[in-house]
Amino acid sequence: MVHVLNPPAIDSVALIDEVVAERQNGINKDFFNEMAIEWRQRVRAYLDNQGSPVMVEKWAAVELRKGTLLNLYKHPADGSAQGNALAQLRAHNLTICPACGEAGRPNTLDHFLPKGAYPHFAIVPHNLFPMCDACQGAKLEKTGDAEDPKFFIHPYYDRFSAPKLVSLTISPPLCHAGFRTQGKSRFARK
Ligand SMILES: [Zn+2]
Fold first, then answer.
1. Would you report the helix, strand and coil content of the chain in percent, each value rounded to 5?
2. Which of 2, 4, 57, 190 can bridge 101 by disulfide, Cβ–Cβ 3.0-4.6 Å?
């Protein structure tokens, strides 16, 4: 991560309420109504724990309805609450990828906690940030492991203030960029 981002100016908890409200005439009304309170609590827990995969739990109960939650992200209706939020996130003016520093407008959104494992955060703005295709391809569903559970730096929450942020070592092959800290490669491009 080479670029700290300001958190989105969107109320992620209120967005959940809006999404549920918009489903009151749809076929998934009961599903959303039943999960609404806990969904809200889990988004609040995400914000309180700054998206840390050590602290923020997966939600086994929604696994069977994962597709319904992912569709909110993949196929948002025009003018829908989450559609507007996603459009707002995509309307950034970044000219480098915040993860690797590659020049050019990052044209995809990455889920900090991956949507496959955390489908209930698929549309949560604080879980989404711009990233270049190469970084996202390298990150995919990774979050960390037992040895290093906070594997990825969160662009909205993590602040790195050490005087020496990174050291730069240029070595072959020279056609790829990578980011390495404490001996571990982060968002390394292969
Ligand atoms: Zn990148």
1. 35, 10, 55
2. 2
What would the mean pLDDT of 162-188 be, rounded to a whole number?
62
Q: What is the DSSP letter of 95?
A: S
Alpha carbon of 186 to ligand 1 centroid (Å): 11
Residue in the block written with tokens 């992912």: 70
Å from CA of 98 to ligand 1 middle: 6
Measured in Å, residue 152 CA sits from the centre of ligand 1 at 13
154 within 8 A of 46, measured Cβ to Cβ: no
What distance in Å separates the CA atoms of residue 105 and residue 128, rounded to the nearest whole number? Answer: 16
128, containing H or E segment: strand 128-131
8 Å CB contact between 127 and 51: yes
Ligand 1 centre to CA of 96 (Å) is: 8
Reported as a single tens digit per residue, the pLDDT across 82-97 is: 999 999 999 999 999 9
Cα 129 to chain center, whole Å? 6
Instruction: Give dist(CA 148, CA 159) in Å, integer.
Output: 17
Q: Cβ(126)–Cβ(12) under 8 Å?
A: yes
CA 159 to ligand 1 center in whole angstroms: 18
How far is ligand 1, taken at its centre, from the CA of residue 46, in Å?
A: 24
pTM of the model: 0.81
